[in-house]
Design brief:
Distance between the termini: 26 Å
Number of strands: 12
CATH architecture of the largest domain: 2-Layer Sandwich
CATH topology of the largest domain: Hypothetical Protein, Haloacid Dehalogenase-like Hydrolase, Chain: A, domain 2
Order of helices and strands: EEEHEEHEEHEEHEHEHEH
Strand content: 25-35%
Strand order of the largest sheet: 6-5-4-7-9-8
Number of helices: 7
CATH class of the largest domain: Alpha Beta
Helix content: 25-40%
Number of domains: 2
């Protein structure tokens, strides 16, 4: 695995983090209403899994099988706790984990009851997220360029899921993998092999040829 030693966009656009110096360069916090939104969702969907991605750790106020699998796959050492025990400040995003076949109902409920002050995004078939209002991967990408003084640099963005599309469009070179959603493919300048075929090597080869 490559060790990232440069600033990067994290939490689907809510922050820019400098991994080399272990510090946030920019961040945007979700609305204070997010706690009430979570209570609404937990009351309506008691079997939902939830992560609150805080600037210092990951809090897990609700566990289900989808969330357990996610924590194991991503090696997330979450703090399983009560919602009321989570600090009020420092929330960068909220992730709801739910089975894919039940996700449309959950997403509709969140869109209807949790819209004020948030941006909502389906980041995987079984993950629905609350981000700060106006925040997206594309917005975080622009903040990354700003805080690193890189606005005039040649930029490349790659993606596969619809929440990547705006970022792919905004780069000098937008790349989609072959198994990306159609919206991402239509936003890209180049389509490469799938995300299971070492896409980073393919992207580097394209850049070298330019």
């Amino acid at each position: 695995k490559l060790k990232l030693r440069i600033p990067a966009v994290i939490f689907n656009g809510s922050a820019v983090y400098d991994f080399d110096n272990d510090e946030f360069l920019w961040q945007s916090e979700v609305t204070q209403k997010a706690r009430d939104y979570i209570k609404l969702v937990m009351d309506r969907f008691p079997d939902v899994g939830i992560e609150v991605l805080h600037k210092h750790t990951v809090y897990v106020p609700a566990l289900n099988d989808v969330e357990r699998a996610h924590m194991a796959l991503e090696n997330v050492h979450g703090d399983v706790c009560r919602l009321d025990d989570i600090p009020h400040e420092g929330w960068l995003k909220v992730l709801f984990a739910y089975p894919e076949d039940k996700m449309p109902e959950l997403a509709r409920f969140i869109d209807e009851h949790c819209a004020e002050g948030t941006n909502r995004v389906l980041s995987a078939p079984f993950f629905y997220e609350l981000l700060p209002e106006g925040v997206s991967k594309a917005y975080g990408y622009k903040q990354l360029l700003r805080v690193t003084g890189s606005e005039d640099r040649y930029t490349v963005a790659a993606g596969d899921y619809p929440n990547d599309a705006e970022m792919v469009r905004s780069a000098d070179l937008g790349v989609a993998v072959s198994n990306a959603h159609d919206e991402v493919k239509s936003s890209a300048d180049v389509i490469i092999g799938s995300n299971n075929e070492d896409p980073m090597t393919q992207i580097i080869d394209i850049i070298r040829k330019k």
